[in-house]
Amino acid sequence: MAIEFEPTKSFCYRFARYELLDEIAKEPEAVSGAQFKMIDIAKRVIEKHLTPGQLAIEIPAAEADRTDTVYSALKFFVALHAKRLTNSPFTWLGNGGMYRLKSETDIQQEMEEAELDAEEVEDVTEFDGWIYAFSFPVLVKDGLVFPIKIGMTTKDVEGRVAYQCKGSATFDNPVILSRWQVRRVGAVESAIHATLKSRGKWRENVPGTEWFDTTLAEIEAIIKFVTQS
Question: How far is the C-alpha of 210 from the C-alpha of 216, rounded, in Å?
């Protein structure tokens, strides 16, 4: 495949997203359906397309006081897109950069969740809703900080939590820690997430989303501040 090489961060972003991910998904390790280490395949695929000299070119990094090589930038963007893109062909398994190709079941479940989320968004503008917090018994620490999932629903909290955990690789049932009925539930959820992220509480490198290292008291305090403002 002929590519128009540019030694820029923008090129690395686009090439990783629109070319490398799809090619990695066709490699034997991925097609097998087994777990694989993304960096190993990414290196092999990247080196098919660019020469050692091109890969060694330095480009500005996100921090102005340093540079990255094209090679480093491409590996970074492959991992970023594989983990965070909504339509990524891969499921991130977390343990040491391990992934697997999404199965038909994974894709179907994502489609069902997207439909459910769309229904929730439609309802949010008209109805009150619930902010909920849940975790797993093994993680709960009474009075201390521990991982908590914070979400919203305009319907049944138990049903929403059960649906989110369906098919997850967990060895225990979730426990709903608390729920709060609020107006403008979508805006309240966004405010909680933004506040906790600004405090460095977001658990970024875990499977799933909306997990935070926090306490029920902290969540309640944020909700009280937001809803009484």
Answer: 15
